[in-house]
Amino acid sequence: MQIRKVLRMALAGTVAAGGFYYAVTTDSYREVEIRKDAVVAARPIPAGTTLEASMLRTIRIPESVSVGDAVVSIHDAVGKAVRVEMAVNEPVRASRLSSTPALPAESRVMRLGVTMVTVGTSVRPGDVVDILAARKEGDSRVLLKGTRVLAVYGKEGRNLFQADGTPNKEAGLTPAVVEVAVPSLETALEIRKTMQSGAEISLVGYGAHGSPVTVMEAGAEHTEQEG
């Protein structure tokens, strides 16, 4: 009888230990949401505003909703201008910041979808381009002369260039969307109207950074979907 009692106690101890081990191992594999720092707007910020530390704050957000070019340090954003209007708690993205002088208040940012790129050419932020319109009848005209490229995005929506102007190797090389500055809302509406009329829109650039002459066909105005 004594032997059976010892065996039962030993067996119970083994089961208890096994149960504890199971609880520990299953708990260690429980899905844990990873969070990371992100700099966001502390208040509404108009387009063209040069950022100050008081306009920003840092929060922790789930890694699953963080964008690839999210700014994680307020120091990296201060002194740079935002290209687009920002809402409260909107993450600050490096692709939407500019170290160049802020755009005039009446200026607008226009994003054009690229349908064709001439072989051997390139475009990058800071390049100066003309926006041309050509109709099937053969006539063509300049819609906007000497505007500046603000950003260039790839097919997956990632910026092809980092904030310091160096290529983003992970984003590829082929531009899908070019972001340009236009001097006024009226100019932006004129470009949109011309595109909707069926005219072929081209971006012809001078390569401000020493790159070759740039020629691109813009298929349509690109509108970013909010998600």
UniProtKB/TrEMBL annotation:
<dbReference type="InterPro" id="IPR013974">
    <property type="entry name" value="SAF"/>
</dbReference>
<dbReference type="InterPro" id="IPR036732">
    <property type="entry name" value="AFP_Neu5c_C_sf"/>
</dbReference>
<protein>
    <recommendedName>
        <fullName>SAF domain-containing protein</fullName>
    </recommendedName>
</protein>
<feature type="domain" description="SAF">
    <location>
        <begin position="36"/>
        <end position="98"/>
    </location>
</feature>
<dbReference type="Pfam" id="PF08666">
    <property type="entry name" value="SAF"/>
</dbReference>
